[in-house]
Amino acid sequence: MIFTETPLPGAYLIDLEPYSDERGFFARTYCQREFEAHGLTAEVVQCNTSFNAGKGTIRGLHYQTPPAAEAKLVRCIRGAIFDVIVDLRADSATFGRHFSVELTADNRRALFVPEAFAHGFQTLLHETEVHYQMSAFYDPESAAGFPYNDPKLKIGWPLPVTAISEQDRNWPAFS
Question: In the annotation, is 12 catalytic?
């Protein structure tokens, strides 16, 4: 795997190092030792899949508060997404800044989202599926978020919104 730190310290893009032959290729998508060597949370306690029927769907921006704060490894396994993270670490030089990247089934790229980051995405194609590996169990009491269109965050979503949950539409503003 190839680890590339994003402009938000602690968040990484992870690209495959495929071993190819006449059959196709083989690549490791996760290795606890490699994650630990980069100082990343390596524990995985839950995996989730998000299927999204329509292009333009938004999920997020979500995070979990302590004691259930979570790191995520996000990969688009079908279709394409515009993936966004926001640094929520109050002591960080990049507090309140966001980073976005296109994750697709074709580029097979993953995004490591550290604890204390909000995460969300918009689907770029119909029938898009996203796979998450989580470092903490989902805890509804710790679930939190911000509106995708919060004016303080100034995220430039690429498409008009076609679907969003009532909860995601009504999170309190980023402060």
Answer: no
Give how far the C-alpha of residue 11 lies from the chain's centroid of Cα atoms, to the nearest Å.
10
- Which one from 62, 63, 98, 138 is the annotated catalytic residue? 62
Among candidate residues 119, 49, 34, the one with its CA nearest the CA of residue 84? 119
Catalytic residue among 12, 63, 132, 148: 132
pLDDT, tens only, 124-168: 999 999 999 999 999 999 999 999 999 999 999 999 999 999 999
Q: What is the pTM of this model?
A: 0.95
The one-letter code for the residue type at 27 is A
Q: Is 62 a catalytic residue?
A: yes
Q: DSSP assignment of 125-170, as one string? A: SSSEEEEEEESS---GGGEEE--TT-TTT----SS---B--HHHHT
